[in-house]
Structure formats: structure tokens, C-alpha cells
Amino acid sequence: MTVKKNLLSSIEVHGAIPAHLARSVIEESLRNAILDGRLPCGTAIRQQALAALFGVSRMPVREALRQLEAQGLLQVVQYKGAVVAPLIQDDSLETYALRFLLEAQALRLSLPLLDEEDFKAASACIDALEVETDFGKIGTLNRLFHQALYAKAPNKKLLALIETGLVEEERFLRFNLEQMGLGRLPQDDHRALLHHARARDVEACVNELEQHLQRGVNAIIRYLQDQKSKQP
Asked: Where is the HTH gntR-type domain (predicted)?
């Protein structure tokens, strides 16, 4: 008889959690476990099991799950409840189109307000990406680079929507760079984006972003076609 592994046991809980921090602690713990693969796609997330694990009521658990669903990391499936979302969904290509609209607007709002510290933060991400070989860290650095350029946009709702798309890409890159045969990502696109940002050339920056995201779309199309060809 095969014993089913309790994947939630991979989440460490260190002592009692203050009630006012319960939702954020649960959300962050689950988010990290999803992003680093401890909770793989399709894993069912049971509210009662989480409540018992963290020693809290179901209320902060429900709130944390709603936040993760809004971020695209969980989805509600009939008869199963909340499950870890797939890495690539049917609307992933549409998501990239929406990402361009949102991120282009963020660039237009943020770029005139960026200072040298912001540029240094973006440059540091590029330097780290040039030598990083850990696929998980590559995904994170990619997200942090883009966020450094958008950070000064005053529209916080816009930035929250953008973060959701970047988290989705981070998770995809973390698990599929090697399978996609991309290996270490070249940084020409990122360096061009930073160059135009430093020059305060908004439209050149937006045009470079469009080309950069289109390359991401092309990679996903190739990945999906490859997965389809492997199906019996």
C-alpha cells in the first residue's frame, strides 16, 4: 500500500503566530512553497489542514488563499477546492499581451521619476543574472529587474497587477528554463531597457519592452508545441 505524502509537511512553522499576522504569514509561507516547487502544480490545499498546521482558525487561511488565487498561484477546482495552479495556463499568451499594456504604462509613469539608486538596483540585477546558474534565482532576479524600473509609478493598483504577471513569469522560468533549452538568459534586452531608461527615452524603452516580452511569448509557444508533440 502506497502512503500518500503530505506535501504541507514541507512548510515549517516556528511557534505560535500572532493573530494579526496570521494571514500574511500563511500567505508568504504558501507562496514560497509554490514558487520553489515544494507544492507542485495540482496540489490540493485543504483549509482545515492549513489551519491545524499553523494553529489558527480557518478565517486567516481563507483570506490567504484568496490572496494567492488573486496572484494566479492557486485556482479553485470543482470538487477539489483550492489547488496549485499550472505553470502554463490556456490564457498565458493573452497574459503577456496584457502585461505589455500594463508594464508600458508603468514605464511611462515611473521612468521620469527614477533616480540613480533605482538604476543601480536594476544594473545589479543584470550583473547577477549574467553569472547566475540557479534557475530559481534567475526567475527572481528577472522579476526584481523589471520592478526596479516600474517602482516609481504612483499608481499602486497598477503595480499590484504587474506584480501578479511577474510572479507568474518567475514561477514559469524557475521550472522551465532548463526544459526549454534556454539555459542562462542573455541580458541584451535588459541592458537595452536600462540604457533607454537612463537616457529618459520613454518611447524607446517601451518599444524595447515590447520586443522583450514578444520573445517571451515566442518561447512559450515553442514550449507548448514541444509539450504537445510529446503527447501520445
From this structure: 20-87
CA distance to 68, 83, 89, 91, per residue, from 20 (Å): 18, 25, 34, 36
In the chain, the number of structural domains is: 2
| 1 within a domain of the structure (yes/no) | no
The CA-based angle 192-170-11, given to 5 degrees, is 150
The CATH number linked to 51 is: 1.10.10.10
In one-letter notation, the amino acid at residue 222 is R
- pTM for the structure as a whole: 0.66
Query: Which domain covers residue 179, as residue numbers?
Result: 92-230
Confidence (pLDDT) at 3: 35
**pLDDT (tens digit per residue) in 134-170:** 777 888 898 899 999 999 999 999 999 898 888 777 7
CA atoms within 13 A on the CB side of 224: 14
